[in-house]
Amino acid sequence: MSQPHLRTVVVLAAGEGKRMKSALPKVLHPLLGRTLLGHVLSAAAPLAADRTVVVVGHGADQVGAHLAEIAPDATPVLQAEQLGTGHAVRIALDAVPDATGTVVVINGDVPLLRPETVSALVQAHEQAGAAATVLAAEVPDPTGLGRIVRDADGRLEQIVEERDATSAQRAIREINAGIYAFDVPRLRDALGKLSTDNDQGEEYLTDVFGLLGSAGEPVTVHVAADHVETLGCNDRVELAALRRLLRDRINEAWMRTGVSLLDPETTWIDVTVALDRDAVIDQNTQLRGGTVVGTGAVVGPDVTLVDTVVGAGATVLRSHAIGAEVGPGASVGPYAYLRPEARLAEKSKVGTFVEVKNSEVGPGAKVPHLSYVGDATIGAKANIGAATIFVNYDGVNKNRTVVGEGAFVGCDTSLIAPVEVGAGAYVAAGSAIAQDVPPGALGVTRAPQRNIEGWVARKRPGTVSAAAAERALRAAEGAPVGGGAASEGEAIHGEAESVGGASAAGDTATE
Ligand code: UD1
Ligand code: MG
Description:
The chain is α/β, with parallel strands linked by helices. The model is unreliable at 1-5 and 482-509 (pLDDT under 50).
């Protein structure tokens, strides 16, 4: 029976948002993965409108550029002077002269609005055959908002701005949420009749309701089930409050799908993030952008992931990652920094104070401590000793390092790119490797060690060291041969764990 309606969406985003006190236009402020404008546009997305018009004014270039990125099909329309919400809608409709059917108008600063609520508003409006329908909500504190004034029968009479309201009208707690559905031809007609006879001298979109109502046109109110959805954002205190509300909404939704959040109040997940069942997110964790966390993975505490994919069963502890990939069962942190194109294959390990950039760490390979890995390919099951630095930058160019499968790089080594350590090769601790090490070879660049006996007694007499040395030497003289002291091999090994001693590489890497 009813004809399919052509639908238009108009978003009002020309205001400056003075109270934000920001160089950034209000609608571009970010809120858990989208700008305020982005949130509003996604609330309207399920309407599948034929046309979306965004009225821009303050920061029009910036808003227009952002719009081109997030909604290239939307049309920005410039409102050079902000002469009121009625004026804004009038010029928006001028830009779509062929529009008919329903137009949905949304203030650009209501980011918690749900798509379901917008759809319900439109459905109620179209079913009632109304000329205009306003989304209203009963709020605890209506300060600053337009009030819904109803007649004795409960029918909408008019919408009154607070500054133009009588004290009786100010006591009304049912407010205009700033989201509306209109019948386009009747709206156009009413917009042509708006006056600026009000406290702000502006054309108020809300006056359309009084005008249409008194002309006998049906105007209706659709009450939002949850007033939180209608909260606007006028300053940064309100923005922070909206962020907490949205955080709770997002977190609750994830918990209901089977994700464990150990401390939801300190867990901040962008709307754009995806989490698999049985992922565990520990406290103080931020998951941003296109981040994905696989099933059984444990992320946190104290982790920030931006555009990072974490595979099933991986762990990421007290670390920061951006544009990285953590393979299934891999282990990251504590205190790791993964930068763009860091790709950690399954069951690999990137440990404490390790930075990885534009590098592949192969399956089961380990970089456990204090290393920089830049522009490298590390083969499967290779072991990179503590404090290994991949020297990727010669001051002009970035160069690559390849470490073969099963290679073993001793502690405190520089791998000076471009260079290759072959499969199964060893590099002795403390080496600076600038030439390829063939598969299975030991690369070593250290000068032989010399011990100058008695140096401390001669050069540092009277010091703590000299006294300790003297005691040790006396004890050694008095000790029975072969008893008490560790054998030479054990002593070197024990020392090598921490300082990278003089033995072969096998003794000098940490695990
Ligand atoms: C408006 C409503 C008020 C409602 C409230 C809900 C009017 C007259 N009043 O008041 O009843 O309770 O929203 O938040 O509409 N804008 C333009 N061009 C303009 C003026 C405004 O694009 O010339 C945009 C703003 O950027 C903003 C939106 O319209 O996104 C609303 O404008 P704002 O000044 O915030 O209106 P309120 O005083 O909040
Ligand atoms: Mg406002």
